[in-house]
Write the structure tokens for this entry.
Amino acid sequence: MAKQSCCHKKKLRRGLWSPEEDEKLMNHIAKYGHGCWSSVPKLAGLERCGKSCRLRWINYLRPDLKRGTFSQEEEDLIIHLHSLLGNKWSQIAAQLPGRTDNEVKNFWNSYIKKRLRERGIDPTTHQPLAEPAGAAACRAVFGDVADLIPPAAPPLADPMPPPLDWPIVVGAAAPPSRSSCYLQGSCGGFDMDALHQQQHCVPAAPVVASASSSSTLTSMAEAEHHCNPAGAGGLPWLELGANAVADAGSHVDSYAGALDELRWSEYFDGAFQAAASQQGALQQAGQQCVYKDDVAVHFDVHGLSNWC
DNA sequence: AATCTATCCAACCGCTTTTAA
DNA sequence: GTTAAAAGCGGTTGGATAGAT
């Protein structure tokens, strides 16, 4: 017999959220923050499991969500990032302010996949579905960027580069030391040198991650931190994810700690705006950057317009 | 008008990772 | 070092809706 979910065990409500439930959750988080998600339903007076509350908040109620249709630029960015990262939806969504991993995943599965297939591109491998017609289709679709696909592409039996389970970092400059085979040329069947050239790889200002998927307070710390150039001076880049703050430095640790003391209402009033304005400025500059291991992959968002 | 089909997307499920005790 | 709980993540499901027949 299949294992039952926590909601089943506790006979909690499931399915779509009512407006009343949304309001309860919103009010609770606005007043107290979410703290421990497992205690949220009880404190907020909801007959839901904590997991369900967390998901509802992240995917629907969060005030910094953009919603609405994806722009062409966002679509191009998703395709590009997917070619680099695979189905790492949370990492892809982190580069798209106001978008959630669920939203990006749904958009990919319902729209982009189909569109790529129509144009002769395998959405999994980002390679032409067949040669030579596929290559022609690819060129027609991608324009000059199609040159990135090596002429002697590996057979479809093993068409993908090595698994991409590397941590994504946003920031300005690649830290030294370790490097990735995949990002250093053609060993993975993908010419990253060409990609770097295509993407006008230049040092970029630090990029503030969206609040999606990662700890909102961590994002707050990052947002606030980036808004303070003096404080950011010693930190040319910051890592996303659970260990981000610790890795970035002790002063960020203390900053995040202090932010824990903030009331949620202050967060609403200030941090989202700060993050949004910072992200907006960087987007205006058109610069984005992801990391595999310690290697930066910079790319010009505007330059992706020919990607698909 | 009724029914069928396709599409979209919110929510769930279950696994993995992280954190705390 | 071990264990349990919490959080995070990606895959999948199912209900709502629109369009076609």
